[in-house]
Amino acid sequence: MMKQEKHGLGMSAKRTISNTIIYIILIIMSIIWLAPFFCIVFQSFRTESTWQVGYVIPQKWGLDNYKALLDSSFVDWYKNTFIIALVVCVLQTIIVLCMSYTLSRFRFKMRNFLMRFMLVLGLFPGILGIIILYRVLADMGLTKSNAVFGLILVYCAASGMGYYISKGFFDTIPMSLDEAARIDGATRLQVFIQMILPLAKPIVIYTILTAFLGPWGDYVFAKFVAFNEPSGMNTAVGLFTWLAPDAIGRKYTMFCAGGVVVAIPVTILFLFLQKYYVEGVTGGAVKG
Amino acid sequence: MGKSEKKKKNSNGLSFVKAFIKGDIFTKLSAPIFGLGCFVRGQIARGVMLLGFEALFIWYMINYGIYWVSMLPSLGLEGPAKEYDSFYDQYVTVYHDNSFKILLYGVLTLFLILAVVYTLMTSVKMSYTAEMKKKNGQKVDKFKDDLKSLVDEKFYKTLLSLPCLGIFLFSFLPIVFMILVAFTNYDGAHDGYITGLFHWVGFDNFKTLFSSNGGTGSYFKIFMSILGWTIVWAILATFTNYILGILVAMMINKKGIRFKKLWRTILVMTIAIPQFISLMYVSKMFDKTGLINGFLLNAGWISAPIDFWGTPLYARILVVVINIWIGIPYMMLIATGILMNIPADLYESARIDGANPFQQFRYITMPYMLFVTAPYLLTSFTGNMNNFGVIYFLTGGGPGNSKATAVGGGVGHTDLLITWLFKLTQGTEASYYMASVIGIVIFVIVSTITLIVYNGLGSNKNEGDFA
After folding, report:
1. pLDDT digits (tens, 9 = 90+) for A7-59
2. How many whole angstroms separate alpha carbon B264 and alpha carbon B266?
3. Which of residues 162-181 of A touch B (CB under 8 A)?
4. CATH 1.10.3720.10 segments of chain A
5. What residue segments make up the domains of chain B, in order of their start?
6. In CATH, A73-287 is 1.10.1740.10
7. What is the mean pLDDT of the segment spanning B129-140?
8. Any idea which of A221-225, A258-262, B56-60, B133-137 has the lowest mean pLDDT?
């Protein structure tokens, strides 16, 4: 032991240098990664001007921008986004879990065909379909000020295609568990709800989290369905209108405040559920 | 595997024919009268459902279906026209056929007919099964048994029905529709109802895309330049993130580095912020009047603001760099888990053989990572080809390409195929048919790449196995 240490003296000096370099890189990276977020927070408190300026720290601090948010369409946008995200989160989680559990556990005639079919379908750009979906939703009266319902429908309907990651997780739970429970007289439904779901808790939480984050940050579909009607927009579409050339001079600091308000709930959610998110992302990547 | 599957299929196809030929008169009549066989054998609920479906279908076809299907070849005969209205004593525009609805409901009706054919076969097969069971003295399944099996042996049917219906209606059908639109002249001026009917035009739109009429501003030239940038972008975006993400993960994982959790959390937190906010904000930071220019001006490093988004080269470099900022945290997360799984003795023996850190990275870490994450690399490559968010929020596709006046959508230098497609669907001059053509082109490219890589992967997996 002692011998080794003596021998490694040169090595350890080298290691100290390389570690120092790494620390410096990591600190610089942390600054680069966090800087924009600090900037947006600082600028949301700036009250001396509403347009873009060349400095970060406000000269006059205040909550004016946040107060102004309350009197703007932002309240509608936020409410829309919240309702959509919440409902989609519940429905999409149920759909995805049903789909992935079935494809993992059952062997039926159409199984391979179904999986290949969804794979091919997934290769088409999703934006393409929205042209027709918009007209169909418009016929049903689910666009513009009723965009919330239309969007919930659009997000949930095809969400079964996102079964891949949770199916990968279900595959890792041994089939022998199912069989044992079935021998004891449990139906498939009981096996699914009472046994598999508790075991799959990490992936269930991951599914919930992603199902919430998706609609929370969606732009393309929301833009189509809202069709320039402010009361039907979500936060992404709404806030983007504030950055248009004719609006940015008056709305820039309000945009910053709005961005902060949008980011806060998901950031808190993330802080608590980070572990599960990481598990889902890594699992999904390795299995493809 | 392939053989046995084929066999199975044959036996399924046979059983309908067999059931029809060998079945008694009721089984045979179950073909024109759905569920008759079920009624005769006491499966009332089944029979009611089958017959009800048939009745509904016939009612639908007579009232609507026949019209939609018969209009499909023409997509509508009578467009909007000015007609004299005696009540108002003036000419008013009267709307007649609706090409959009004809195409939509026509296709839907065709699928319905397929479903009816399938039900017809099921009806005969069901009747035959019940007939055989009666003959052999077995108990015939009652409705209660059917329901019970739906939460047990046939539980998959219960679980899949709703999600599959959703996928069919909201994903599959729109795609079929849009593929068909590529063969029409559906655009802002021919929206099928209010501004005018649209019609089938065969392969004309594809010819337009590949025509070089108009010299440097032709559709083909513009398309090729966008395609070229899309591929360059996808390669740059994928591999910069991939390699840098792995390096960051390795730095954090390195023995002796402290606060591992802190570094990771800082990066992961940036994932939590909705991407549209970070992208919109960063985009404005690099504006002519934005924070970066303001900072550089105040510091006296430049005398006039740099037009980052107005200069093609700067804009292209910036989107790649900002994409690195967005993407590294994801890749770091993925790489962290995998790096820990690399057997430590591989590095140990490499060190004994005198390999330096770079060689270790080159010959151990990278091959291992590539082996494990090849499918991920593929999906992230195709994902980047269709990376709408980064491009749209940062540059909106700009700066504008002054050559691209002949093509629709207002093409810019950082436009990807997907953002071009999106632009083509916007506004009153929207050109839906060109958007559809581009969508099909994207599909062909992405699926070709996927096929090639998957086939390559198949042979790789057998060769070197690390585990």
Report:
1. 555 667 877 888 899 999 999 999 999 999 999 999 999 999 888 888 888 99
2. 5
3. none
4. 73-287
5. 10-202, 208-462
6. no
7. 82
8. B133-137
Give the position of tokens 């027709």: A132
Calculate how close chain A gets to B398, using CA atoms only, in Å.
14
Chain B residues lying within 8 Å of A262, measured CB to CB: 274, 277
| Yes or no, beta carbons of B276 and A236 under 8 Å apart | yes
CB-based contact A129 B170, cutoff 8 Å: yes
* The CATH number, out of the four listed (3.40.50.720, 3.30.450.20, 2.40.50.140, 1.10.3720.10), of the domain defined by the range B208-462: 1.10.3720.10
Q: Does B278 contact A36 at a Cβ distance shorter than 8 Å?
A: yes
More confident residue, A257 or B23: A257
- Mutation to test the B interface, candidates A97, A123, A135, A165, most B Cβ within 10 Å: A123
Pick the range with the lowest mean pLDDT from A1-10, A272-281, B212-221: A1-10
How much of chain A exceeds pLDDT 90, in percent? 44
CB contact under 8 A, B170 and A108: no
Return the residue of A nearest to B244 by Cα: A29
Q: How high is the pLDDT of residue B372?
A: 83
Q: Which of A129, A269, A286 sits opposite B178 (nearest CB)?
A: A129
CB of A24 less than 8 A from some CB of B: no
Q: Which residue of A has its CA nearest to B293?
A: A54
> pLDDT tens-digit profile of B145-179?
777 877 777 888 888 888 999 999 999 999 999 99
According to DSSP H, which parts of B191-259 are helical?
A: 204-209, 219-253
- Among B98-102, B215-219, B352-356, the range with the most confident prediction by mean pLDDT is B98-102
Q: What pLDDT does B285 receive?
A: 92
> Which residue from A minimizes the CA distance to B374?
A288
This prediction has a pTM of 0.87
Q: What is the ipTM of this complex?
A: 0.89
Among B265, B284, B388, the residue with its CB nearest the CB of A127 is: B388
